[in-house]
Amino acid sequence: MVEATGLSKNYKDFKAVESLSFRVDHGEVYGLLGPNGAGKTTTLRMLATLLAPSSGTATVAGHDIRKQPLEVRRNLGIVNGGMQVYERLTGREVLEFFAGFYGVEGRLFRERLEWVAGLLEMDGVLDKLVREMSTGMRQKVVIARSILHQPPVLLLDEATAGLDVFARRSLLDFVKQYRSLGKSLIYSTHVMSEAEEVCDRVGFLYGGKLVYEGPAGEAMSHGGGSLERAFIRRLEEVAA
Ligand SMILES: Nc1ncnc2c1ncn2[C@@H]1O[C@H](COP(=O)(O)OP(=O)(O)OP(=O)(O)O)[C@@H](O)[C@H]1O
């Protein structure tokens, strides 16, 4: 569902992302793991056609990010750490506004609203003004608006940043549920314990390079059952 080939991004002489190649299959959660500055956001922004690659390319649901950006956008949703939502609208109004961009209107919108509300347990959220919402409620609105068009690929960039224990739990549960619908997700985080719980395969990103890729279970076994230890061990091997 996602296939990156030699994907790179330079900012002048600085190589923020260097020749990434990886693939994410149908119904799979792929963990893009790495510390701050590793290049996770840059990678996801290129996949979402928000940033042009310096070289290389990728396909999303079979569409080339360079040649078919509109098709790519129709087939993906993206959630980043920011939770900017119009403060003076209710949850329902925010969703109706964004649904319009995808041509999800009228009866179809009402059906999709019911679908996201059930999936994300949005009771009490839809009719509340955004400015009166808790952080967890806002996050639900942000996720809901990114999946109203039921994209086969969902990109989550540090999506649990700033969430409390309840909101974090519901986000991780949502990731598993979305996968169970046969969707593909890229879960970018530096929180390895979250990746241990939800990721099927992982890529370790460091200094813009993919230094390891494989099934999450296999990666964990390299770290004696811990992805965090596996990550550090892999960096030590690369440095040696
Ligand atoms: N517009 C830009 N101009 C110059 N350098 C940039 C720009 N955007 C990002 N970078 C640099 O590229 C590198 C990768 O940044 P990126 O935001 O992709 O990392 P990240 O893994 O998402 O980390 P974080 O979790 O801190 O966001 C960093 O060193 C960053 O400073």
Strand adjacency order, main sheet: 6-7-8-3-9-10
Can you tell me the CATH superfamily of the largest domain?
A: P-loop containing nucleotide triphosphate hydrolases
Order of helices and strands: EEEHEEHEHHHEHEHEEHH
Per CATH, what is the topology of the largest domain? Rossmann fold
Count of helical stretches: 9
Structure summary, number of beta strands: 10
Uncertain residue segments: none
How does the overall form come out from the CA principal axes? globular
Give a list of the ligands: adenosine-5'-triphosphate
CATH architecture assignment name of the largest domain: 3-Layer(aba) Sandwich
Summed over residues and divided by their number, the pLDDT gives a mean of 94
What's the CATH C level of the largest domain? Alpha Beta
- Termini separation: 35 Å
**Overall number of structural domains:** 2
Radius of gyration: 18 Å
The largest sheet, given as strand count, sense and whether it forms a barrel, is: 6 strands, mixed
Give short descriptive properties of this protein.
single chain; 26% strand; alpha/beta; 9 helices; Rossmann fold; 2 domains; binds adenosine-5'-triphosphate; 240 residues
Describe the structure.
The radius of gyration is 18 Å and the shape is globular. It folds into two domains: 1-75 and 152-163 and 183-240, Rossmann fold, CATH 3.40.50; 83-150, no CATH class. The protein is of the alpha/beta class. It has nine helices and ten strands. It has helices at residues 40-47, 69-74, 91-101, 106-119, 135-147, 165-180, 192-198, 216-222, 227-239; strands at 2-11, 14-24, 29-33, 55-60, 63-64, 76-79, 153-157, 184-189, 201-206, 209-215. Helix 3 runs parallel beside helix 5 (135-147), helix 5 runs parallel beside helix 6 and helix 8 packs across helix 9 (227-239). Adenosine-5'-triphosphate binds next to strand 2 and helix 1. InterPro entries: AAA+_ATPase (IPR003593), ABC_transporter-like_ATP-bd (IPR003439), ABC_transporter_ATP-binding (IPR050763), P-loop_NTPase (IPR027417). This is ABC transporter ATP-binding protein NatA.
